[in-house]
Amino acid sequence: MRDILPALIAAIPIGLLYGALAAGKGLSVVETALMSALVFAGGAQFAAVELWHPPPPLLVLAFSTLLINARHVLMGASLARKTANYSGVQRLIAFFFLADEIWALSERRAAAAPLTFAYALGMSSIFWLNWVATSTLGAFAGSLIGDPRRLGADFAFTALFIGLIAGFWKGRSTAITIAASAVAAASAYRVLGPPWHVGLGALAGIAAAYAAGDAEAGP
Amino acid sequence: MSLDAGVLAAILAMAFVTYATRIAGLWLVRRLNLHGRARAAFDAIPAAVLVAVIAPVVLTTGWAESLAAIVTIVAATRLPLLGVVVCGVASVVAFRAGLRLL
Questions:
Q1: Tell me, what's the ipTM?
Q2: Which of A27, A32, B48, B69 could form a disulfide with B58 if both were Cys (CB 3.0 to 4.6 A apart)?
Q3: Could you tell me if A168 and A174 are in contact, meaning their C-beta atoms sit under 8 angstroms apart?
Q4: Which of A135, A126, A64, A138 is nearest to A99 (CA)?
Q5: Among residues A183, A175, A218, which one has the least CA distance to residue A203?
Q6: Which residue in chain A is spatially nearest to B60 when comparing CA positions?
Q7: Number of compact structural domains in chain A
């Protein structure tokens, strides 16, 4: 399982950070671990923690999760053809673990050799265990450390998102998307307050990409 | 060590939505044929969402956060993800301390 090692190491501090931030927002250790085990989607979990306040805003969290994880639909569509040798049940199990890293590593494997259920499940289960374990540890450590602002850790997920956004960079269309989303989200945050900035900002970015996409494609 | 019913409901809702996005591709792949504008809009979803989530921190919180975001963006063009996070955290701590001295 040497293939998964770099992704595992990179995920350790991110899992610890998620656990610490979740604890800082008042989630218990059990709740923090349960979210990692059942949701298993870093970006959506960080966004949920950022939007979190008691009592948890269920619809807002579900909507934010849907928007952030919409990319899974394309990732799954791409892997659908490469997992034609799986049984129906095997697919439903394997696709539960469709995180960015698992997807990228599965695609890389599929390019070299036929992807097998055993290979995918082995890789996925280690990555999943690592994520749940580091989240839990982070939640324990976080409640000991106290206010994450003191160490600048509150900015870590902003930095993480900037790094992830850079990974989606595709030139002019991405710049237009980012500008529209940033301006709309910051304005909505000022005028309407959270959580409206997420939906309105995202819709503005998507609409801008839609408009710009036509211009690039020509008549 | 507690598990609140409202929290559990929120987590289950997030888990359900996430799993739905993960398996939707299996059914969608046969009928979806995105191109042109629709394709561009769909491809823009991840960046648009991530930007919308962090925009308030970057643009409306204060000078320390805005300046640290600029450093982080530069770092993101040349460092792996982990290095980007370290640079971001270090620069926000430095800018907060620096601005307090002014």
A1: 0.82
A2: B69
A3: yes
A4: A126
A5: A183
A6: A186
A7: 2
